[in-house]
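[Meeting: bench + compute handoff]

Bench side (C.D.) handed over the final construct sequence. Compute side (W.E.) agreed to return the predicted structure before the next meeting so the bench team could plan truncations. Sequence as handed over:
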Amino acid sequence: MSNRTTLTEFLLLGFSDVRKLQILHFVVFLVIYLVALVGNLLIFMAIAFDHHLHTPMYFFLMNLSIIDLGSISVTVPKSMANALMNTKSISYAGCVAQVFFLFFLLGADFSLLTIMAYDRYVAICQPLHYDTMMNSKACVQMAASAWISGILNSVLHTGNTFALTFCGGNMVDQFFCEIPQLLKLSCSESYLSEFGVFAFSVCLLLGCFVFIIVSYIQIFKSVLRIPSEQGRHKAFSTCLPHLTVVSLFVFTGSFAYLKPTSSSPSALDLAVAVLYSVLPQIMNPVIYSLRNKEMKASLRRLTGCR
């Protein structure tokens, strides 16, 4: 009987075997999780309850907040629980769920970031057509396409990964079930099909990234022609944070999934995983609220602060 049929759990990599450091790991991840949770919930509530923010840009931002809440909840709570209880195990079904929901949400995340770049392009480069091109129906369809693309991406990767036979043990060299680390445990030649799926996904990712870069080149050209310094500052303040998040997401995620996997646990692998799976979910509430006057005003009205 193959290990594929008898495998009931995986062991996740801890940040340390020292008990005090495990508690520190729990506390740090708890703070990170609470910051992301509160920040994204505040953004969601501010946009949902403030009619001043019922515009396409904030509609997409509200969707991004939901995705961020979901994606950080897929990996961080389980890592916290393992650190607190001094264990490393995750059930086979739990691992499948982590892979499915993480790929679903990260795929939807990047699709939504691409749509947000298009929204900024239309708003700045074609302002007279903005209301027509970004009407309510179009915005709902775009957001729905982002969620659907995430599901399709997830089904493809999850199905390919867990169709493999695992006979290289059950130790995953990452703090969550990451596909490159799972492929190391496979002894089936069919893992090449997952690399084929990766290649297809990378082509789509690069296509979206090129679209985003071209959009921002056109945006910056238009912004530099704005005579008002205040107008240029406002345009840059809405675009640069978005470009920062996109760049962090693309470069760290691509590095994690395209670089050759090491035979032993690596601190670099852990750091990169945190950068693409945890940090953006904290950055989004900070850059979209602290750098945005409309959002700050809405949050003050929501919390009753002046």
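W.E. noted at the follow-up: Residues 95 and 140 are 32 Å apart (CA to CA). C.D. will use this when planning the next construct.
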